[in-house]
DNA sequence: CCGATGCTTCGATGAGCAACGAAGTATACT
DNA sequence: AGTATACTTCGTTGCTCATCGAAGCATCGG
């Protein structure tokens, strides 16, 4: 028979679990109590939910002393969640984008950047033909690879995984593509590493310093 | 705040609704009673579910006399459902593929082909460089377009929509890509039109005649 | 060791909601 | 018109499951 999509969807259908999952979209590993706080429930119920999410393999866990660090089981789960956001966003809301303005400008999407700046970056990379776009996918051009090497990117590690290097990821606030994949990951890490931006300690927001933003825009020729 | 993915997921989380939705993955428009039968529930409860699915815009409806024909609201919904299938499939079952052997061989996925044959077709198109694959996307090569024109394809209509012409769609039984998009749609319609295959009247299965299968394999050089 | 912290198990409570029977509305067939 | 068919509305029932309090286990810090 057809596979059982209901039980998987049910994992996301509970509001508390949904809150936990979206919190984990930050890519950070969070402890059980942090997730309980995030979802506004007690530790007991959170424990219950987390057990279910583990059983269905939406999450993985790493035990460290008396803490348990939970993470999304992989990019595929993150993609599913973002997919749901895009669909639901298109459906329910007139007002576009998140209410929190800093989330709208720049935020983390699993392990890469999303939001206005990320969408502008994607457009800039396209314009310079660093990446080549084909409706719903993209590739890195040879010139693009050279460009990133001059920035200090190490393509032996970027290409080491089975994950694609470039992947367009639909931005639920902008409804346009931004860059995911290992290269998207590298760009975020690089910007953080160079001190151009910092991750918010509680939300998914990414805060650029004024200088950092100028440097970032200059580096990638974002207009 | 973050968008509300829970309520959308809840639509799919109910087993009866999930059955209806998977039935509609056939791409066919089904009436309320047909869907009630499919989900093994009475007409009243089905009516209830369908109202919810309409409200959340997972379905669209066309009224025709005393019948109401329901369809998926678009390819985006179909993709979401197939995504869920892939994930759930990878997670829960050891045995790969559907139990029904004819579904495993060939079935409809919204408006294109899926299953063993469709996966073999995708591989054959790749090998002949009719389509160019890049991990998670693909494009039609110029030679490929000429090839399909000799088969009688009309690219003015194929390219008329905003939908991509080629799109890889992960096959939940084979765990490999098959071809979606308007070209995937054309291939299915063409095969049906030429009498190589017929759609099952009740399930999503596609039945190739022995001659039809030979002709299909020969046409696309499937090995 | 002992208290504090993080997480889990158990049992009870309660709310949400899927399900259906019964009755109502709309359309079609003759 | 009159009956059958398709779908909807209403009210009731009953089950599932999220929630939390209480108590338990594990780990850390002194």
Automatic annotation (TrEMBL), chains A, B:
Domain named HTH arsR-type: residues: 1-92
Q: Could you tell me the superkingdom of the organism this chain comes from? A: Bacteria
Q: Which organism is it from?
A: Pseudoalteromonas citrea
BP-aspect Gene Ontology terms? response to cadmium ion; response to lead ion
SUPFAM superfamilies linked to this entry: Winged helix' DNA-binding domain (SSF46785)
InterPro entries recorded for this chain?
Answer: ArsR-like_HTH, HTH_ArsR_DNA-bd_dom, HTH_Metal-responsive_Reg, WH-like_DNA-bd_sf, WH_DNA-bd_sf
Q: Name one GO molecular function term.
A: lead ion binding
Q: What is this protein called?
A: HTH arsR-type domain-containing protein
Pfam families in the record, alphabetically? HTH_20
